[in-house]
Write a structure and sequence with these properties.
The complex is a heterodimer of chains A (about 250) and B (about 300).
Chain A: H1 2-16, H2 19-42, H3 50-55, H4 58-72, H5 77-82, H6 85-89, H7 95-118, H8 120-127, H9 136-163, H10 167-182, H11 195-203, H12 205-213, H13 219-243
Chain B: E1 2-11, E2 14-24, E3 29-33, H1 40-48, E4 55-60, E5 63-64, H2 69-73, E6 76-79, H3 91-101, H4 106-119, H5 135-147, E7 153-157, H6 165-178, E8 183-188, H7 191-197, E9 200-205, E10 208-213, H8 215-222, E11 227-233, H9 236-244, E12 249-257, E13 260-267, H10 274-284, E14 287-293, H11 298-311
Parallel strand pairs in B: 3-8, 3-9, 6-7, 7-8
Antiparallel strand pairs in B: 1-2, 1-4, 4-5, 9-10, 11-13, 11-14, 12-13
Helix pairs in contact in B: 3-4
Classes of the chains: A mainly alpha (about 250), B alpha/beta (about 300).
């Protein structure tokens, strides 16, 4: 545990001194905030679900995928490029510690960026004249769902970074892979019906996200993301181990 | 302290390190000498645990490098080639984080930090951003990080490569100060550096161990012959002929450069031919404007060693 937290601390320090982190988080908050504001104005007077205001627009998802890409692309690829991975891999750490520390650091930053989004409904409430209450449970499950999905995508990003030669390649690969996973729905129409469509439904993130944001906690989705994180991190450890043999 | 047995490493079809066996005693400074591509970096990476060997074992103070991988790395201070560091960080921050990765307590880190900064001549740069430091300083930061956790064994991959003479001397001073209290293995392609710093040198060629001895012995063993260079104003034919007639001469190369003849003479035994050549010049009434011993370069040692190798 000490070892993982030492790697985590190192990762957090390096991320927090990088100006690009602040840039991408600022863009993330600006895009999600403006969307929420605009949708709130448009739907004034009409009853609208909070989830639609928060997570409905496609912009929200695209910027989320970009944020995760930016947070994970450097994890392994940058250290490989600069050679500092050699320092990390000759320190008295197991490969698992290195992978876990890097994953948790990226996830921590993602959580920090996501947290203010949960506060949007209360800001809206403070600004509006009508008397209404925010459905806390709905906001919490919605944000928790996005966080769970983000955790899986972060694990995918860390794996692709470990496979890539440099951060730019890692970014391209991760963004492509995350879009593929997220917009899996598109294949629903092209494939055969039956098992294939079931599989697409299961993997496709949009459906999960919509469920979560309505306050529905579907255990199938939780299992999917949980095991996905496990698998991605396991593969990352194997990729990192394989470097010692190449 | 370090025991290497039949260490072998193959990369897709290429054997970078081939059946390497040697041992290093505690407190000894050993140089790993070789030209580029001799397998120095691969050897160093195997010893540091960065790469897994294809075959063979490495033990370090009784611990096995493969079986006790995590434990053993606590005892090794490693400076990789080109001294990678985190350029975004300040020197102190970098050292602090590296100490954390080695499981040092905060108190221990702060204690060792001051000593390491002083020992590596970084006291005045401790709060500067590494990316803005010169190469020599960056190399010292790498060395400081390798020393921070007080390792018994230091493995340094080309610690002075790419530095100017002043910076090189500074790094060598640090290493010399550590000799005796720590076992040091450093790779280099400079014979003078090995002679300067090390008790023993290990010569690698195409991944194989060519020789392991004190630098002085190596020189003597590989280079029984001495070589002198002279520039003489005289007809080239007579220079070539008269020089070849001197005692102990093995080979004479003469080339004309204007009215001067540049001559290179190899002697058989370890004899100094300069007095003989001077007297020859006086007898023949030659004008000599240069007469010097040509020190053997590492390249000569290699040529000598590889020649020995093909002969027998």
């Amino acid at each position: 545990m000490d070892k993982i937290s030492a790697v985590w601390r190192k990762e957090m320090t390096l991320q927090l001194v990088s100006p690009s982190l602040y840039g991408i988080v600022a863009v993330f908050l600006a895009v999600t905030g403006l969307n929420f504001w605009k949708l709130s104005l448009e739907s004034a007077g009409a009853p609208t679900a909070l989830s639609v205001l928060l997570f409905g627009p496609m912009f929200f998802w695209i910027i989320t995928l970009s944020l995760i890409t930016a947070l994970t692309m450097r994890t392994f690829a940058e250290e490989k490029r600069s050679g500092s991975l050699e320092l990390l891999m000759t320190a008295p750490l197991r490969d698992v510690d290195v992978v876990a520390g890097k994953f948790l650091a990226a996830l921590t930053l993602f959580a920090c960026a996501l947290l203010p989004v949960a506060g949007y409904p209360w800001i809206l409430k403070a600004c509006s004249t009508g008397i209404w209450t925010v459905d806390k449970a709905q906001v919490v499950t919605g944000v928790a769902g996005v966080f769970l999905m983000g955790a899986f995508y972060t694990a995918v990003g860390v794996l692709i970074s470990a496979l890539s030669r440099g951060p730019v390649l890692a970014a391209i690969g991760t963004f492509a892979a995350l879009n593929l996973l997220f917009f899996m729905d598109a294949f629903w129409y092209v494939g055969p019906s039956g098992a294939f469509q079931h599989a697409v439904d299961y993997v496709s993130a949009i459906q999960h996200a919509m469920d979560f944001s309505r306050g529905i906690v579907d255990t199938r989705a939780v299992v999917y993301y949980g095991s996905g994180i496990g698998l991605m991190l396991f593969l990352t450890v194997k990729v990192v181990e394989a470097r010692r043999w190449r | 302290m370090i025991e290497v047995k039949h260490l072998t490493r193959r990369f897709a079809g290429v054997t970078a390190v081939d059946d390497l066996s040697f041992s290093v005693d505690a407190g000894e400074v050993t140089a790993l000498l070789g030209p580029n591509g001799a397998g120095k970096t691969t050897t160093v990476r195997l010893l540091s645990g960065y790469l897994q060997p294809t075959g063979g074992t490495v033990t370090l103070g009784g611990l096995d490098l493969d079986r006790d991988a995590v434990e053993i790395r606590r005892h090794i201070g490693y400076l990789p080639e080109n001294a990678p560091v985190y350029p975004e960080l300040r020197v102190r921050e970098h050292l602090e984080l590296m100490g954390g990765l080695y499981g040092m307590s905060l108190r221990k880190r702060l204690q060792r930090m001051e000593w390491v900064l002083g020992a590596c001549g970084l006291a005045d740069a401790a709060d500067r951003i590494i990316g803005q430091l010169s190469r020599g300083y960056r190399q010292r930061v790498g060395l400081a990080a390798a020393l921070l956790h007080d390792p018994d064994v230091l493995i340094l991959d080309e610690p002075t490569a790419g530095l100017d003479p002043n910076q090189r001397r500074a790094i060598r001073d640090v290493i010399r100060g550590l000799a005796g209290s720590r076992t040091i293995l450093l790779s280099t392609h400079s014979l003078s550096e090995a002679e300067n710093l090390c008790h023993r040198a290990l010569i690698l060629h195409q991944g194989r161990l060519m020789a392991l001895d004190t630098p002085a012995n190596l020189r003597r063993r590989c280079l029984g012959c001495a070589r002198i260079v002279a520039e003489i104003r005289a007809p080239i034919e007579s220079v070539r002929e008269k020089c070849a007639a001197l005692l102990f001469v093995e080979q004479v190369e003469a080339e004309a450069a204007g009215e001067w003849v540049k001559v290179r003479i190899m002697s058989r035994e370890d004899t100094d031919l300069r007095p003989d050549l001077f007297q020859l010049g006086v007898r023949e009434n030659w004008v000599i404007r240069e007469l010097r011993a040509d020190p053997h370069t590492l390249e000569d040692v290699f040529v000598a060693l590889t020649r020995e190798d093909t002969r027998g």
